[in-house]
Amino acid sequence: MSESATGRVSLREIFVVFLTAGAISFGGGVVGYLREYIVHGKGWLDDDDFLDALEISETLPGLNSVNMSVIIGDRMRGVAGAVAAVAGLLLPGMIFVMTLGVLWDAQRHNPYIRLILTGVAAAAVGLLLTVTLQLGHKQFARFPDVVFISVTFAAVSVFNFSLITVFLTIGPLAVWYYRPRAHAAENEHYFRHLRERFHSHRAHWRH
User: Fold this and answer.
1) How far, in Å, are 10, 71, 72, 81 from residue 84 at the CA level?
2) N or C: which end of the chain has fewer CB within 10 A?
3) Those residues with Cβ within 8 angstroms of residue 205's Cβ, 6 or more apart along the chain or in another chain
């Protein structure tokens, strides 16, 4: 994004965009809405920049959506932009939660309410999956990335390792592999050899 584009973004516009995303992102799909508005709607960031912000947000404590609001808002208009983005994102949720908190006690056993919330959660999962595939298509196309993704998924979902354990083990390995290095070709050759062996075994299993 150019500096001229940054200068044209008003604090009000930042606030409204994040307010809209925060108001309609039921079920935790806020990242998908932020991408739709910021990348496709406003063109403030491209997919690579948005993915960079998401990656940084994932490594920081706190909610990813709030972290992203700070990063993107700061990039648009500095500290004031970060404040406007966070305020816009959190304000709808605060109002809805306080309102629903009053009504929930009387309706908590209503089966229709539970069915509605289940449907919202399913839609949010689908939205997050869509965003993951759209943003991560480059990673899914490279064999080393697929290895790291698969190992992380298996460690968390299959073997039930804690997130902090996975983060402190697989994370440094990934950083080490992608570090600037003189022997990049050697590692690439190693992964290419693994990929060829995998395809060879898969062809053997088919027969």
Assistant:
1) 10, 12, 11, 5
2) C
3) none
Q: Which two tokens stand for residue 200?
A: 């060879």
Report the alpha-carbon distance of residue 131 to residue 19 in Å, rounded. Answer: 20
**The whole model's pTM is what?**
0.58
> Among candidates 49, 22, 26, which has minimal Cα distance to 34?
22
pLDDT in tens, 126-171: 777 776 776 666 666 678 888 888 898 888 888 888 888 888 888 8
Q: Where exactly are the structural domains of the chain?
A: 1-135, 142-207
68-102 pLDDT, tens digit per residue, is 999 999 998 999 999 999 999 999 888 887 887 77
**CA distance linking residue 103 with residue 120, whole number of Å:** 18
DSSP string, 134-168: HHSHHHHTSHHHHHHHHHHHIIIIIS---HHHHHH
